[in-house]
């Protein structure tokens, strides 16, 4: 049996005349933390949107298999039931709900009340800022606090695969460190992670394997540690 949790083959996405993704292959195996890095406009977010079914199917070609099943035609709200959670760029928290309510929403497919309460307590321990603001509306949180909430909400669903789009964007260095600590811990707990990041160094330091995306193509892939030492990656993405 294959170890693939996610397999993307020949994925193409076009927005009208713009070919954003030009036929990429990508695999994420069980328990792996995979970094997908690349410059602005490389097609990373578009790839995640294709996986999560947030693009009109007519724009998408190729196959996307999750746990051996095609994801074609799946609506994003079905994904949580399939144990696939996404933290989108721009966070996507429910702005008019409190922090506590956002976390409860993350667990809407679960009915183990005690487990849900224990998980909320756990996330409040990890992110004390959220605990202090439990009843505050999520829309009034800072960018970094919303990022913490979005991550915790996604994890409340107990996903098998977590997709993260630019979790470090707009965060202070301390917040970035905190978010990456959570990502590494989540991975150690056995959750499979596909991490899209512009901060190539941090992403490759945390990941098992990496993919470089450039102008809609995957231009390099390999062991993350080897990629950190690769002169082409160093020059183009690590500013060295
Ligand atoms: P960033 O790191 O800046 O978010 P990215 O690698 O995630 O970049 P995408 O957001 O996937 O890149 O964009 C890939 C290309 O597709 C870009 O040229 C972008 O302008 C284009 N694009 C993205 N969304 C749309 C859209 N809705 N309509 C038209 N073009 C789009």
UniProtKB/TrEMBL annotation:
<dbReference type="InterPro" id="IPR003439">
    <property type="entry name" value="ABC_transporter-like_ATP-bd"/>
</dbReference>
<comment type="similarity">
    <text>Belongs to the ABC transporter superfamily.</text>
</comment>
<dbReference type="InterPro" id="IPR017871">
    <property type="entry name" value="ABC_transporter-like_CS"/>
</dbReference>
<keyword id="KW-1003">Cell membrane</keyword>
<dbReference type="GO" id="GO:0005524">
    <property type="term" value="F:ATP binding"/>
</dbReference>
<keyword id="KW-0029">Amino-acid transport</keyword>
<dbReference type="InterPro" id="IPR030660">
    <property type="entry name" value="ABC_branched_ATPase_LivF/BraG"/>
</dbReference>
<dbReference type="InterPro" id="IPR052156">
    <property type="entry name" value="BCAA_Transport_ATP-bd_LivF"/>
</dbReference>
<protein>
    <submittedName>
        <fullName>ATP-binding cassette domain-containing protein</fullName>
    </submittedName>
</protein>
<dbReference type="InterPro" id="IPR003593">
    <property type="entry name" value="AAA+_ATPase"/>
</dbReference>
<dbReference type="Pfam" id="PF00005">
    <property type="entry name" value="ABC_tran"/>
</dbReference>
<feature type="domain" description="ABC transporter">
    <location>
        <begin position="6"/>
        <end position="240"/>
    </location>
</feature>
<keyword id="KW-0813">Transport</keyword>
<keyword id="KW-0472">Membrane</keyword>
<keyword id="KW-0067">ATP-binding</keyword>
<keyword id="KW-0547">Nucleotide-binding</keyword>
<dbReference type="InterPro" id="IPR027417">
    <property type="entry name" value="P-loop_NTPase"/>
</dbReference>
